[in-house]
Write a structure and sequence with these properties.
alpha+beta; four-stranded antiparallel β-sheet; 6 helices; three-stranded antiparallel β-sheet; about 180 residues; 9 strands
Length: about 180
């Protein structure tokens, strides 16, 4: 797990992640991430201190998903919204030739606009994660956040989680399951 801390200035709140591995700050991925606004990906800036890279994510007016779900259950529609927004983020990242290995799907590092229920993902340049595994762990977390009295929500949550356990699954497979579950 990366070291994380929080900083507040006059107008903004930041999540600061300390990069464990050395990163070429002049790399294409870093330039694309810092220089562009990618929907559903948190805007960030980077700063190097003593050879260590710190990535500052602007989390102003957002809450971590796990904090939002500590107080209530997640709904079926919210699960669908999150997965669709993750899909859109991946599509937009592709336009900038950014891979999915650096997306952190930890519920404590997914920041939500609580009023609009819009996600903000942390994309860490140079991170060599395996997105399908990260997404599967995230969906396992979601299972714990559903109201088990809400049959439709339970069926959807278990269904998408089961899809994520299949060999060579992709987010497209999960979205197809959501569409077929709506029929």
């Amino acid at each position: 797990m990366m070291k994380a801390e929080y900083k507040r200035d006059m107008n903004h709140n930041y999540l600061i992640l300390y990069q464990e591995e050395p990163v070429d700050t002049a790399s294409y991925q870093v330039r694309m991430l810092v220089g562009n606004v990618i929907p559903s990906v948190l805007k960030c800036r980077m700063q190097g201190v003593d050879g260590q890279l710190m990535v500052y994510y602007d989390i102003t007016s957002r809450q971590p998903l796990n904090r939002l779900l500590d107080a209530r259950f997640i709904s079926r529609d919210e699960i669908c919204q999150i997965l669709i927004q993750v899909h859109v983020a991946l599509m937009r990242m592709e336009e900038y030739l950014l891979g999915d290995g650096g997306i952190l799907m930890d519920p404590g590092l997914i920041y939500m606009d609580p009023e609009l229920f819009q996600i903000g993902l942390c994309l860490v340049p140079g991170q060599a994660g395996v997105f399908p595994e990260e997404l599967s762990h995230f969906l396992q977390y979601i299972l714990k956040c559903v109201n088990h009295k809400d049959r439709e929500c339970v069926v959807l949550a278990y269904g998408v989680y089961q899809e994520s356990l299949k060999d060579n699954y992709g987010l497209d497979d999960i979205l197809k399951f959501i569409v077929s579950d709506n029929d």
